[in-house]
Amino acid sequence: MRTASLTQLRFAAALSLLGCAFVFNLSAQTYHDVKNPPKSWIDPDTGHRVTRLTDEPGSASMYFNVNGYSPDGHEMIYTTPDGVSVIDLKTLKTRSVVTGSIRVIMAGHKTPSVFYIKPEDHALYVTNFDTGVTRKLGTVPPRGSIATINADETQAAGTYDEVEAPKEQFGNNGPGGPRKPPTKVEQMHALDQAPNKGEMMVRRLAARIPLVVYTMDLSNGAVKPLFHSTDWIGHMLFSPTDPTLLMYCHEGPWQAVDRIWTIRTDGTANKLMHQRHMAMEIAGHEFWGADGNIYYDLQTPKGQDFFLATIDHTTEERTWYHMDRNEWSIHFNVNRDATLFTGDGGDPGQVAKAPDGEWIYLFHPEKLKNIGLADKDFISPGVFHAEKLVNMSKHNYKLEPNVSFSPDQKMVIFRSNMFGPTYVFGVEIEKAVK
Question: What pLDDT sits at residue 313?
Fold first, then answer.
């Protein structure tokens, strides 16, 4: 493993005294083992400034499709080994909000709040991170979990198993596998990819554990079943614009399931959102845009041809944006006005087997003009024009970076272990001025 030479360190120190912006141009490569990783640097391969937003080793931003931002866009929640903290995205000042062994769900869309479960009483709580006021909202059903809170913060949604899950299986239908009392703070989606994930998913799907998808009324804690199933249900996420619309997925190997579904909270309109047209076609890692549209990773077939697909929530018009193999990402995201996309790349061990995919990407979308036959049911074609933001060659992709745009659309925020422990980073979309 390469370390900084004495000459490089003296050079860096001299530049620091001069106040130069590119002091840590070699940070991810040269300063990989330092105990105090750099706070800010310009990536020499991309020209974009990267800032380490958190100071706590083991701190992490939220899962890519989970809201982590305050309604006014000024603050972001993040987890630490001790609890949940909030960072002011302008001043970068942080403060602790919740401490103790909890499972964090998300930040509220309506109020500056964090929702979480306390395993000690298996109950849902909310803490306002401006006032510090904490309320208990309801008790989670036995063998159950809560995955999401709706846009007006009136309902939660989750699943519970109707029977005890076999211990040799992956566990219950909540994300992250068997739900044991945590010894520290956990996110509802595990930070690291599960070992032998492919084998686990096959076993879990085959278990056919009976479950109930339900909602909880946050005014009184009342639980209401939506439907019963023996499918493995996960990735539940309420629309950020429609408090009655819930997206969920059929978990399992993507080529073996029809994954992406939506349902109304009154139990109606249970609908498959992507219909497969090819053997080994896969679609997944679905997420809502701020516009209420659905976006997801699409491969036709698996590991060969790559798209980011979109569904307009009002017209149901579909657009597929094509990308190269190296540009495929474990997770994608979109900015508030849907003019830019981002991806967190992947190492050669991921499904795309990309030889040069270890980057944080910015994608400029282009819809292609149709000069041929037209049909209202045709897919609108598009293409991504990729720009590299951060060299992630020193990142271990067992930790998924989980990119998102800052609400002011000036940064892409992600988690990384490029310096050893996990921290939260932000990379500026505009190139740095040297």
Answer: 86
